[in-house]
Specification:
This protein is an alpha+beta fold. It contains 3 helices and 8 strands.
């Protein structure tokens, strides 16, 4: 399901990930201790001048577990938790969160949602787009960070289509 080096042009460098695909912050609204996660992975970090792209994937024991996780994460309380987590992550790098909210994006998988965080670091705008997808008992996300201007919408659409198609192939028969 994850993005691969072949998905990018030669200007991008693939760097190993550091840690798991889940954030380090805890929020009770996003607690999944009652759900069974059977697999989790993160792509390399793909970077070029002023841009960073990564993807994550999670597979749950059942479609019901995946849907429960999805509903928690996309609820109003879940979105508040995500905003707080983004704010805390940015603060650790002396970056200030300016705005966070849903953005329009084409549907991918059974369910999808897109968010944009806009931040500022020493007067430079930084845009963080996250597109999350649920397909069957899997969830995947593409994270695209860009300095100065929002991530190119055509490129974000292309990358999320690749991830959604790979999720569909992986979940065939699930």
């Amino acid at each position: 399901m994850l993005l691969r080096p072949a998905d990018f042009n030669a200007a991008y460098t693939a760097l190993p990930t550091s840690g798991g695909s889940r954030g380090d912050f805890y929020c009770a609204a996003l607690d999944e201790s009652d759900l069974t996660l059977t697999g989790e992975a993160q792509s390399p970090n793909f970077t070029t001048t002023g841009e960073y792209v990564a993807s994550t994937a999670s597979v749950y024991r059942s479609r019901s577990d995946a849907t429960t996780s999805w509903k928690r994460g996309t609820s109003a309380v879940g979105q508040q938790c995500l905003r707080a987590g983004v704010r805390a992550e940015l603060r650790s790098s002396a970056t200030r969160l300016v705005s966070f909210g849903r953005i329009a994006f084409p549907r991918r998988g059974d369910r999808s949602v897109a968010y944009r965080a806009t931040a500022s670091q020493q007067g430079i705008r930084i845009y963080v787009d996250v597109v999350a997808i649920q397909l069957s008992r899997s969830q995947a996300a593409v994270i695209y960070i860009s300095a100065l201007a929002p991530p190119p919408s055509g490129e974000l659409r292309r990358l999320t289509a690749l991830v959604a198609n790979r999720a569909a192939a992986a979940m065939r028969g699930s």
